Amino acid sequence: MDSFTVLIIVGLIHCALFFFDTLFKSCSHYPYLYFLHNTGLQVEVFRLRWFTTVFNRFIQKCGCWRPRLLDYWFTLGARCSLILLPVAVYIFIKTALGAWEKSSGSGDVKSSITLEPMIPGVNLPIGDIGYYIATLIICSVVHEFGHAVAAVREDVHISGIGVIILFILPVVYVHINTEQYDSLHPKRQLLIICAGVWHNIVLALIGICMLTLLPILVYPFFDIGSGVAICNIQQASPVLGPTGLRVGDKIVALNQCQVKDYDTWYYCIVSTIQHQGPGYCVSSELVREHDESVSVKQLPGGVVECCSANSPDHLCFEYIETEGDMPELQQHSCLPGRTVIESTEEMCTTSSDCSVDLHCLKPSLDNHTRLLRIKRENEKIVIFLGHPGEIYHTVQVSDFVPYLFIPSAVPEVIAQLCKYVSVFSAGLAVINIIPCFYFDGQYIIQAVSNIILASKVEHKSVRNAIALCITICGTVFVFGNVLSVMLSSFL
Predict the structure, then answer these.
(1) Residue 364 and residue 385: Cα distance in Å, rounded?
(2) DSSP conformational letter for 237
(3) Which of 75, 146, 158, 471 has the maximum number of C-beta atoms within 10 A of its C-beta?
(4) Helix, strand, coil proportions of the chain in percent (round to 5)?
(5) pLDDT interval class at 80 (50, 70, 90)
């Protein structure tokens, strides 16, 4: 299912909800109105809103827990957030310059520091939409939880917590008493408004730590670093079959390339694509016993064919002879591929690579076809003839090889979620700190202006006007930046 189909389905669901909401309200359907009133649910055009006070007591308890520790925590958060502000501005400037260079054709190398809108189906796999939504919910909840606890700590009343679903994007928000907030000293306001960014920074660090420590945490249940486990094989994969790969197999080598983890798995596949496959060291007795060669034909692309159409399991092998020595075998032999591969552990590129009394035979294949020997632990080897890219695109592997019956998908899901949380939470922290309307930066710059300019500008309205001008400039810069990045992504 592509991204366009998903968007259509979501749109139809929103239309159906809005239609029935309008119908029941126009008919004054009492059970439906009672349901909306008790749940706090509101249905709008392509938007669902839910507001509740259920969590108020829990937030109140959290805000009263260890007062001195919370003061240190949110003070540290405010300082770290203010340190992040110039860093965020720098990242935005680098992103804008990179997008401009890309659109003008002068930028060949993508900047290592960049911000990019993450859109499922465009620059994110549509299959990861579950991670996408779950990550947004986690990051939003942690962000707003920080605001709520900090507000309670400063004796600001919490009216409730709400969730807005804008088409498919979930947004969590906390409603606080604005009059009590405005009456606070700017330094105390800063503790509340920086708490969300601070919690996103901490969440990103937690995600990175979890991702780093995950191999250690799952070590009693999974083997790591000695191979890869097959998690999924597509139905159209050429490696399926009675003698092919199966889900749960542990792959330890591709030809002579040792597979230890996903990176080496990828490297081995790329290596087999870039280089011609090796030959196999076999005895002259095996060749004479199984040779079914016919008259040699030269095919396009330099391929030599010496097997008849009645021998589908046979391949034409070329004898790599030692220079200056009398050849002991004929130049080409038609031999059963599996018999040749299973008869030896030795592979070769020249005749000198083979042991005494063994000869180097190399399969005659075109430039895109490879003969791969896929070695599995405690299982027979799998022989693949084709383009190695087909294996990479149709076989999903994991670094986590299970000792027990726990599937490798469990740590893979945790690892993928940690990656999304780390990236999204850090990105939200950087974006929210920028002085822009509807961002935390709007209120942060206002509080900072009132703190810094208090001794130089007497009237608070003037200080707020200065903060407003900075926010307007920041808003124009942010939306211009986002627009340029999106245009450069689609061009």
Answers:
(1) 12
(2) -
(3) 146
(4) 50, 20, 30
(5) very high
Q: How many Å from the N-terminal Cα to the C-terminal Cα in the chain?
A: 24
Contact 91, 115 (CB under 8 A): yes
Give tens-digit pLDDT for 402-437. Answer: 887 777 788 888 999 999 999 999 989 998 998 888
Q: Which residues contact 275 (CB under 8 A, 6 or more apart)?
A: none
The alpha-carbon radius of gyration of the chain (Å, integer) is: 32
One-letter amino acid at 79 equals: R
Q: What is the distance between the alpha carbons of residues 189 and 187, in angstroms, rounded to a whole number?
A: 5
C-alpha 366/C-alpha 360 separation (Å) is 19
**C-alpha to C-alpha distance for 305 and 332, rounded to whole angstroms:** 9
Cα separations (Å) of 270 from 233, 254, 267, 384?
19, 11, 5, 15
Q: Is 46 left (phi over 0), alpha (psi -120 to 50) or beta?
A: left
Position 420 scores a pLDDT of 92
For the beta carbon of residue 367, count every other beta carbon within 10 angstroms. 9
Query: From CA 78, how far away is CA 84, in angstroms rounded?
Result: 10
Report how far residue 106's alpha carbon sits from residue 110's, in angstroms, rounded to the nearest whole number.
11
Helices (H), 29-106: 30-39, 56-63, 67-104
- Tokens 């968007």 label which residue? 7
Residues facing residue 233 across a β-bridge: 395
* pTM as predicted: 0.77
Structure tokens at 88: 């965020």
- pLDDT (tens digit, 9 = 90+) per residue, 280-302? 999 888 988 888 888 888 887 67
Distance separating alpha carbons of residues 172 and 141, to the nearest angstrom: 6
